[in-house]
Amino acid sequence: MMPFVNLTGQREAYREELEAAERAVLDSGCYIGGPEVKALEAELADYCNSGNSDAGKQGSFAGKDRAEPETRAIACASGTDALTIALMALGLKPGDEVIVPDFTFIAPAESVAYLGGIPRFADIDPETLLIDPESVKALIGPKTRGIIGVDLFGQCAPFTELRRIADEHGLWVIEDAAQAFGATAGTQHACTFGDISITSFYPSKPLGCYGDGGALFTQNNELATKIRQIANHGSRERYLHETLGMNSRLDALQAAVLRVKLRHLEEELKVRRENARKYDEFFAEYNAGIRASGGNDGAKIVPQHIEYGCTSTYAQYTVLADDRNSFIAKLDAAGIPHCIHYPQPLHEQPCFRGLAQGCENKNAIMASQKAVSLPVCAFTDVDFIINKLRSVL
Prior knowledge:
7-stranded mixed beta sheet
């Protein structure tokens, strides 16, 4: 059975490098933190800053710390931890409201609610599937403290507009780039758009480790210090705990794996983007064929729109299928793996019952009913999948 993400193929490709890196850590006796994690943080920051002419363009909330505007990276135990730590560093208090996209994984809204905040659910753009700035504006009220923009499926959210809104209302911005390390918008890399940005190293991500892992990014010295302190039990000095924090540390073994994979990230992203181009071409031909034949327009299958000037990591290659059940039946018949991200908008999740009275995010509801993701990783034979698609569509 073809895997949705071919992690075995990736490991085979880099086996010698990975085993050497893993052996070095195991032989060192330093398994949490230490030189591997420190080196990874430096390399992640260097990657984000490379060619990044807009580095340092944060909002007014980030303060006046501009002496050294380069992005800093702080590793932690998971992407969800990273979101929680970011909210803590930005001072979220019980009852504060944070605007999040309605169509995404639960982690942004979950982290807000976990700290006693109130997630407010914004609708999405029906083509890019990213948070809609107009919907964000409609949700701002006296309790609003910030906005979380999610780089869904690997494309950067519309941070120029989100930043303009945030600055106008004195709000902070968090960039959830859990799926997007390696994406760009213009000359600027993902993980540099928020007052704090985060990413995830979950194994199936474009840059993934062999367990849970995450990182936070900021260009503000004060926030960087807070983040590192919170992630280490609220401590900057051993056994001196200035604030309440949490235990969120990246293992040295995971850092070593990530350092190997980071060296190959750009070449893998090129393959992912070429795979996506092949899918785009196929579905354009398919939809044109439907129109030319006078067929059922309700059978269209439309890929997520990538904005001009943006590059996606294609963490998933996602399409909107007007008749998703029929499309999935054909994928199953052809033995093509697929996933549904995400089967219901967040405001319909039972854990948020009572928070979404009157929520009518029609685009988020539409996406939850139509979205299907196809394999796209650098070790997937997309030509084989497209031939299979031709045989069943």
